[in-house]
Automatic annotation (TrEMBL):
It comes from Acetobacterium malicum. It is a multi-pass membrane protein. This is Hydroxymethylpyrimidine transporter CytX. The keyword Transmembrane helix applies. Belongs to the purine-cytosine permease (2.A.39) family. Signal peptide: none annotated.
Length: 400
């Protein structure tokens, strides 16, 4: 991708709207159903505002510095520190690819059983993998045309799905569960947060620095909120949080297959491509596209052999790693004005220790109920810790 043309605002909007429309986001929305429609929608919007604002700031770093997301971690953690986060990002992207593939394959299974009386999860995993590979091989020069078609179909399909759920619904049914309002906000914020290690990979190529990041963030916000609300409404009005039952009960048939296939491809494409970019941060001896294709293959194989579709804990694990990372990076970039990496810095021990403390802060706060979720309080505390440590370092330097 490093040699590709600049990305227009239209291309970025299609890219991120397509990334937001996914079965994973719909399924996450179903988990919020115990709150009911009104409180559930409020939690979804508040959580997405928090998560998308942080995502926007991460995108600004890419747009201004022209650094990829993980490459920008060199600013705060040095060369070797960025290697660590590259490995962590590659692992989570392989995991995300597997989650997307197996979730989509099982959803397709549910639809084809109802429509054609046929099931074959392994076959759907392979087909999805082949389509993702085709998307990768097309490259960014041709991807805008493909995305225009895919996102157009997804848009129409999502409207049909929305009318099926909300069109004739007069009342909602109660969904049992222990979801709290703060938990729902966090579950909504963590989805855009999961894109933090990726957004700058694409906004660094935006033709327009400011509007490119804004278009990317707003497109994702609208698409993701929409998918969450579809999941929430479907669970309430159909009375189950099982997405496969939902699709079967609605009798969507071909429309459901289109939504599942293209939403998976447009989202997983960003995952596998960013894995290649993260690998290049470690070494440029292997071609980026080779790593991208390898990520796709490994993700598909993992989806076929591992029961990985339970991903709520996976989302929180991503938050544990990347919320502290970006709390430190955003603080140094926007407050301390550290806007470029120091080529001589191999590792920043001070920030590495703060990151470790940040992981514990995030995990500790998960045990408490905050109306605005855990992400924002954790990032504020970590940012304050960064500022205090830096002030202490400067004070000690003056005294010595």
């Amino acid at each position: 991708m490093q040699n590709e043309n600049k990305l227009s605002n239209r291309s970025l909007s299609l890219l991120w709207f397509g990334a937001a429309i996914s079965i994973a986001e719909v399924m996450t929305g179903t988990l919020i159903a115990p709150l009911g429609l009104k409180d559930g929608m409020m939690a979804i919007i508040i959580g997405h505002i928090i998560g998308t604002l942080i995502l926007f700031l991460a995108g600004v770093i890419g747009s201004q510095s022209k650094l990829a997301s993980i490459e920008s971690s060199r600013i705060s953690f040095g060369k070797y520190g960025s290697y660590f986060f590259s490995v962590m990002n590659i692992l989570q992207l392989i995991g995300w690819t597997a989650v997307m593939v197996i979730t989509a394959a099982k959803a397709i299974d549910g639809v084809t059983l109802n429509v054609f009386n046929y099931q074959n999860t392994m076959l759907w995993c392979l087909i999805i993998g082949v389509v993702i590979t085709g998307w990768v091989l097309a490259g960014f020069k041709n991807i805008e045309k493909l995305n225009f078609i895919a996102v157009g179909l997804l848009f129409v399909g999502s409207i049909i799905l929305s009318f099926q759920i909300f069109g004739g619904a007069a009342s909602s049914s109660a969904v049992e569960g222990t979801m709290t309002f703060g938990g729902a906000v966090e579950l909504s914020a963590i989805m855009p947060i999961s894109w933090l290690p990726l957004i700058a990979d694409y906004t660094r190529f935006s033709e327009r620095k400011k509007s490119g990041v804004m278009v990317s963030s707003v497109s994702y916000f609208i698409g993701s909120c929409w998918m969450y609300i579809i999941g929430l409404g479907a669970a309430l009005y159909v009375g189950t949080t099982d997405i496969f039952v939902l699709l079967t009960a609605m009798g969507l048939g071909v429309v459901a297959l289109i939504i599942i296939l293209f939403s998976t491809v447009t989202t997983a494409f960003l995952d596998v491509y960013s894995a290649g970019i993260s690998f290049i941060n470690i070494t440029s001896k292997v071609k980026e596209k080779t790593v991208v294709l390898a990520t796709c293959v490994i993700g598909v194989i993992l989806a076929m052999i591992t029961p990985i579709e339970q991903y709520q804990d996976f989302l929180y694990l991503i938050g544990s790693v990347f919320v502290p990372l970006f709390a430190i990076l955003l603080t140094e970039y926007f407050i301390f004005k550290q806007v470029s990496p120091d080529g001589n810095k191999l590792i920043d021990l001070k920030n590495a220790i703060i990151w470790i403390a940040g992981v514990f802060i995030y995990r500790y706060l998960m045990g408490f109920e905050f109306p605005i979720g855990v992400t924002l309080p954790a990032m504020v505390l970590i940012a304050i810790l960064c500022i205090l440590v830096e002030k202490g370092r400067v004070l000690c330097s003056k005294k010595s």
